């Protein structure tokens, strides 16, 4: 077949929208390296896919199954154990530790030491 038309394929797949979906799925499969069932004849993958559907050299049921699998959502990842979460650096356990250590330094100072540290910090900023 030198030229494939939609009319050649509509006999095999009555719904034009389904035909487009199946042909697109077959073209993706060909791009991934699946074996062609007809000669390429210098055609691109979408044309080869339509020609295969028109010649009935591919199973429409397997294309439908491939299409459904490709559109299925990936399952949600399972929640990690608390032990694993402790090993994963997060903003809370990275920044939370830094803030708590800074707070401890401040609370260990007497009011006079805090005032002196504050004044030293402020005089350093003015320079």
TrEMBL record:
SUPFAM superfamilies: RPB6/omega subunit-like (SSF63562)
An example Gene Ontology molecular-function term: DNA-directed RNA polymerase activity
Lineage top rank: taxon: Bacteria
EC number assigned by the record: 2.7.7.6
Family label: Belongs to the RNA polymerase subunit omega family.
Biological role stated in the UniProt entry: Promotes RNA polymerase assembly. Latches the N- and C-terminal regions of the beta' subunit thereby facilitating its interaction with the beta and alpha subunits.
NCBIfam families listed in its UniProt record: rpoZ
Protein name (Swiss-Prot/TrEMBL): DNA-directed RNA polymerase subunit omega
Organism: Acetobacter oeni
């Amino acid at each position: 077949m030198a030229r494939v038309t939609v009319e050649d394929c509509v006999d095999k797949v009555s719904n034009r929208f389904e035909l487009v979906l199946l042909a697109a799925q077959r073209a993706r499969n060909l791009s991934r390296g699946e074996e062609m069932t007809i000669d390429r004849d210098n055609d691109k993958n979408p044309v080869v896919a339509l020609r295969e559907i028109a010649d009935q050299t591919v199973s429409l049921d397997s294309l439908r199954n491939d299409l459904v699998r490709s559109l299925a959502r990936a399952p949600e990842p399972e929640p990690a154990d608390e032990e694993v979460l402790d090993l994963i650096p997060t903003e809370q356990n990275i920044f939370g530790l830094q803030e708590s250590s800074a707070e401890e330094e401040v609370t260990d100072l007497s009011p006079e030491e805090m005032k002196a540290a504050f004044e030293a910090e402020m005089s350093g900023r003015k320079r």
